[in-house]
Every structure is written in structure tokens, then in C-alpha cells.
Amino acid sequence: MNTLTLWFHKIGSPPTFYRLAGRFTPWLFALAALTGLVGLYGGLVLAPADYQQSDAYRIIFIHVPSAWMSLFIYFVMAVNAFIALVWRIKLSETLAMCCAPIGAAFTAITLATGSIWGKPMWGTWWTWDARLTSELVLLFLYVGVIGLYHAIEDRRQAARAASFLALVGIVNVPIVHFSVKWWNTLHQGSTVRLLGPSAIDASMLWPLLLMALATKLWFLGSLFARARASLLELEAGKDWAREEALRTGAAP
Amino acid sequence: MTTASASRACAALLRRDLLLTWRRRGDALSPVLFAIMIVMLFPLALGPEPNQLARIAAGIVFVAMLLAGLLALDTLFRADYDDGALEQLVLSPHPLAMLLGCKILVHWLTTALPLLVAAPLLAEMLHLPRQVLPVLLGALALATPLLSLLGAVCVALTVGMRRSGMLLALLVLPLYVPVLIFAAGACDAAQAGLPFTAPLLWLGAALAMALVLAPMACAAALRISIS
Fold first, then answer.
1. CB nearest to B167's CB, from A133, A147, A169
2. Which sign, positive or negative, has the C-alpha torsion B159, B160, B165, B170?
3. Which of B157, B173, B217 sits opposite A161 (nearest CB)?
4. Paired residues of A50 in beta bridges
5. Hey, which of A31, B6, B15, B21 has its CA 20 to 30 A from A15?
6. Is A87 left (phi over 0), alpha (psi -120 to 50) or beta?
7. What is the pTM of this model?
8. What is the ipTM metric for this complex?
9. What pLDDT digit, counting tens, does each position of B185-201 carry?
10. How far is residue A184's CA from residue A178's CA, in Å, rounded to a whole number?
């Protein structure tokens, strides 16, 4: 077995991942807090007010990174779900299932901040615009995955069934992403582009990108923390889990 | 032991399922009754103003169909799971996707087709303009098999659960949303005198894709939840 495969198998084993994730988690959270605070300061204080929306636009520093994360996490969940179904790796099942609540939270934040922004700007809390509707459907998909996972008794079978549902639901991700292009409705198109120049001023762009980085780091930290907890639960009968529990229980 | 060919197995399965439905033919009417009762609620809730009803008639008919189909979904595998026939299907040497395709076909014939036949009646109850009726029927003919196929995948995931009703709705309805949008969009366009072929073509394309993929997905889901 070559080094890469060996490394992959090692990472994939619950005890190794548990220890490794435990080492990374506090750092990830600390970095997320740091970048998040700097990003928020840059966005809420340093960035100039918009010529049209004045200060109300500042909610995008929360709204846009959350919206990116809502799609990104679904993608991560689907990739893990695919690995879990094809190669039956226990860690991937756990990771996919731990993605769902975080993704649902980001989707809910996106919808809430969007409607708070929409009230003064569009004059309404909610409109049946293509992007809003598809984002709401995304929330329901997340809730469906969580619901199915908790409805089946056997944890591994539950994870596989919910993973399958996550894979079926991935058709919605491109719909959310391209909805502003396909149906040119109320929600504005994207102004930040990966390729080519963005239609946003640099003074507003850097806090936005920093916030995007902060949410990614926070997601990773949260994912690792959740995965550790559910791995411990899943492997409760195994020796390493008992050692871990005894070790942390003995030194409170 | 001789193994019959897959097509003969499918024919036998079709005959068995149709016979079972025929023995309890009263049950086939219950989705229709349910849809009629839902449709009846709208004039009572919104007032019997014909113009207002005519404007939203197509949407109401679609929602009634969708809800009736959702309630009927549970019967797709329920009886077979209870008496163990479903496990025999999974264990059989024939391709499971094909057998499930037959089951979904019978389910569509016995639950959605009666709804399709009742659709003109529902449309008339809501004063739907006559010229929209063919579009409504066309959209329903394309949408109901699609709903059955998508629903079957979700039912396969929840098979064997005791209280799966609410959960099934939670899983199925997000997947039904695009179908509803396109089907209702075609009727809206027809009612406004606009071209309506594009949404119908989208529905047809989705149906063609679901016909191929959904039975396979259903088989994979069933293997997960029965194992």
C-alpha cells in the first residue's frame, strides 16, 4: 500500500480522526473568531456607506457569506454522502450527517438576514422570487436530511438513508446558484466573481472575503467538534472510546 | 430451478399488483374523493366569486392532486413490506429497478389516473376557463408520473418506519416544488394567452430523465432501508 492510501486510511479511522480533529478544533474556532471580528470591523465600521442604500447594505457582510456557506456545506455534505454510499466509510457518514445542522443554520441565517434587508429595500419581508424560493427549498432539504437521520433507529443505516436523500437533493444547488441568471427577478445578480473583475469596490470586498473565510473556518471547527461527539457516541462500545471517556472524565 | 426472464417477471408482477388493486377497488377512489374535498374547501374559504376562483383554479387543482398523491404514496410499498413480498423482490435475480418500475407504473395507474379522469370535474367546479383545460390535462399527464417517480424514491427511504407520514411529506414536498412550478406555470401562461409549450417541454424532459433514473434510485434507496 502506498503512502497516500495509507495516510487516507489512517485519517479515515475514527480514533485517529478523533485525536487529530481535537487538536485542530480550538485553533479553527480561534482563527474564525479573529478573522470574523476583523471582517466585521472592516465591514461595519471601516467600509464606506453605499451611495444608494447608505448603511443598510452592511448586512451583506453576514448575508452573503452565509448564503455562500449554505450552498458550500450542501456540496460538502453531498460529497461525503457519495463517499459514504460508495465506499461505506464510517467517517464520511458521520461528516455528512454533521454537515446538515450547520448548513441548515446558515440557510436560516441567510433567509432571516435577507428578509431583514428586504423590508427597507424592497418594502417587503418576503417575495416569491426564484432565489428566495429555491433557498427556502434548500432549507427544507436540510431539514429533511436531519429528520430522516433521526427517524431511523440504527445509526449507520440512518446515515446511509439520509446520505442518499442528500444526494437526490443536490439538483437544487445549481438551481439556487443560477436562479438569478435564469429567472431575472427581484433578487440582484452576483457582484463578486471568481473569474474576472468584481462589480464591488475594494473597500467593501476585503471585509466580505474575510467574512467568507471566517465562516468557512467556523464551519470546519464546528464540523470537527460535532463529528468528534457523534463518533464517540457511535463507537461507544469500542476500546478507544472508553479510554477517551475515562481520560477526559478523570481530569475534569 | 429455472429462472424466468425479466420481462416475464415484470408481467407477473404487473398482473399480481393489478389484481390486488382490483380486489380492493374501493381504495382506488379514495384519492379522488380526497382531491374533491380539498377543492371544495377553497370556495368555502375564499368565497364563491367565480372570477376569483377561475384565476387560481389551475393552481388549486395541482395542489389538490399533489396532496392526494402524497397521501396515496404510503400505500406503494406498505402492504408488500408488511407481508414480506418486498424482501423477496429485493432478493430476486431480476433487476430490482425494473421490478420497481412496474410497481410504480401500477401505482400511477391506480392512484393518479383516476385523479386525471376527475380533473375536468374539479376544473369545472372552480370555473376554470374551457380553453385552459387541455393544457391542464396535458400538464397533469406529464406531472403526475413525475410525482409518482420522485415520490417512490422517498417512500423507499422511509419504508419500514411506523410513523412515516409527516417525515414523508417533509422529504417529498421539496422535490415536488419544481414540478408544481412548471405545471402551474404552463396553465398560467395559457390562461394569460401566452405561449405555454416551454414549461410543458421542461416537464417532458424531466419525466424522460426520471423514467430512467428514478427506478434505479428507488432500488438503491430500498436496498439501504431494507438491509
1. A147
2. negative
3. B157
4. A54
5. A31
6. alpha
7. 0.85
8. 0.80
9. 888 888 888 888 888 99
10. 10
